[in-house]
Amino acid sequence: MKTRMFKKADLFIAFAVLFAALCALLAISLAGGNGRTAVIEYRGETVKVIDLDSVAAPYTFTVEGDLEVVMEVSPQGIRFAYSPCPDKLCERFGTLGKKGQVAVCMPAGISVRITGEGEYDGVTG
Amino acid sequence: MKNSKKTALAGMLAAFAVAAGALESFVPPLPFAPPGFRIGFSNAASMTAAAVSPFAAFAVASVKSAFVLITRGATAALLSFAGGLASCAVTLLMFRFARAKVGCIGIGIASAAAHNLAQVSVYSLIIGAAAFWYLPYLLVLGTFCGALTGILLDLALKLIYNRKDAPDGAKHKK
Amino acid sequence: MKKAALVFLLLALTLAAACRRPYENNVDFAMGAEVTQKLWGAGEETAEKALAAIRSLEEEISYRKEGGAASLNRGGELTGGDAFDIIQKSIELWRDTDGAYDITVLPIVELWGFDTDEPHIPGEAELSAALEKAGTEKIICENGALRLTGGVRVDLSAAGKGAACGKAVEIYMASGATGGIVTVGGSVGVFGTKNGSPFRVAVRSPFDPSAAAAVLTLTDTYVSTSGSYEKHFFVSGAEYHHLLDPSTGYPVMNELISVTVVCADGALSDMLSSACFCLGAEKSLPLLKKYSASALFIKRDGSVLVTKELAPCVECDSYEVLP
Q1: Domain range holding B8?
Q2: Which end of chain B has fewer CB within 10 Å, C or N?
Q3: What is the number of other CB atoms lying within 10 angstroms of the CB of residue B101?
Q4: For the segment B66-110, what is each residue's pLDDT rounded down to a tens digit?
């Protein structure tokens, strides 16, 4: 039986995968509203939520995960400013400011992502 | 192919996978890819092994992950192993059931997608659902990188199966 | 090939359906408060229905309208309906709290004028006269019918906003929505989830109305808050607020500034928040336990106390967990 480098079905596979990617992207970008909220999670648990639209001046804070990382918030967005992890991948994500963006520091178990939802859904009091 | 030859081939492919993986860490990161994203040249070796036998495929995936365990730690190894197993499974299935219909590029793309999906799933166990936000980027990039490794797979298969002692009567060409 | 394409199309449709944007509505006014609704998996029609249900509840339980509560105040009898149910719950809570929760203090509230533009300190004599007129013991329940004696009048506004949230959530449940959140004034009802994740409800800071003192992560429950900062005035530096102690007729003066109660019953969440404010944090605990409710207390000094059942749902810079 021959295996060729390329057959027509390959195109279909490529489109199917790209289509799945498109669906996933749509699902992420359609969910929620039009705000810019940074959600910081440690192992899936929300640690901190920041409304990026209401940030006036840059500031930094630390997040206690498996490692202690420093995050910097500015009107442009949020970034991993420093992590003691060995690979520093998280710092290379740069500043996240658009809905749907995500950055992760695996060794610390900390992720940050930008959702379109407001800081909260309702207010009591 | 005799079993001894299969084993030798599996060993070579595993060595190649490790070498490709090591070399890849010297390649500068793709400018638009998320940090940590790799083209996955070593996947070409795993897929070639899958064409030889399921055992060879498993062996290559294991050796690759063992090497990652030594160089990049347990988490990375777990991710590598999950991705390796998933992509091997998909490759094996496609070789078995769809060999007549699909080409190497298609197998490469499907295998890369399976790799990404498995990794993101394991990833989500560690850091939570945020991991799935990666998926769209990974799938798009994976399509191109999968096509690339598919071409490598095709070259490898031609190298192996065009030899006189090609196994199981499974001639690749002619 | 065609089959595979169909599968992908279905997958895409499911994804699109699952992640619909919520329906949002921010403009209504009912129950003397602003009503906001957000719905997942349902739309305007459901929100309209919920609003209609809230309006008809208001008609039934507001002493200012023409329904059950109003007719009871005019000397009628009540044998059922929303007003009947809320009064029954109120009588029980009155007993549970030794009178700290009392729906008959309307004459006293009117003396203080908290619902007018010019609230003021009432005179001693008129206050004690008004206290005479109050008292839940004057509500008689005989043969399944409620009636009032001794000129007493009922005011169910301490339960109204929470009960309204309950009405809206009932409509959401029946509509097939996957999630919904309704706020009526300071009460919030949450139903289901928003695309799988829980709702985030902020507890307004007593010290800065635009800030959150804490955030609660919740599904399928009700939240209400009673805070002394909502309606208050100052006379020569002393604060007077609308949360009155039924035993004295004066504003409750304890260490608390705000009480937020989470409870599986909308009306009860609202009622308990008033009752717990009057009782103080410590005495509230057995009461909350009885109603399987949990609470977040904010003290005048800004410190936050949380019952242990609620602690896992609370996001707050610093708080103390109650035993």
Answers
A1: 3-166
A2: C
A3: 14
A4: 998 998 888 889 999 999 999 999 999 998 888 888 999 999 999
For residue A124, is it within any domain?
Answer: no
Provide ipTM, 2 decimals: 0.84
C226 to chain A: closest CA residue: A125
- Render C168-224 in DSSP notation, one character per residue: HHHHHHHHT-SEEEEEETTEEEEEE-BTTB-EEEEEEETTEEEEEEEEEEESSEEEE
Among A28, A113, A123, A124, pick the best mutation site for testing chain C contact (most C Cβ within 10 A).
A124
Q: Which residues of A touch C181 (CB under 8 A)?
A: 121-122
- The fold for domain C63-155 equals T-fold (1.10.3980)
Q: Does A125 contact C203 at a Cβ distance shorter than 8 Å?
A: yes
Relative to beta strand C187-192, strand C139-142 is unpaired
Amino acid identity, residue C184? V
* B153: nearest CA partner in chain A: A5
Chain B interface, best mutation among A17, A29, A46, by max B CB count within 10 A? A17
Enumerate the residues of chain A whose CB falls inside 8 A of the CB of residue C24: 33
Q: A94 with C186: CB under 8 angstroms?
A: no
Write the CATH number for A75. Answer: 2.60.320.10
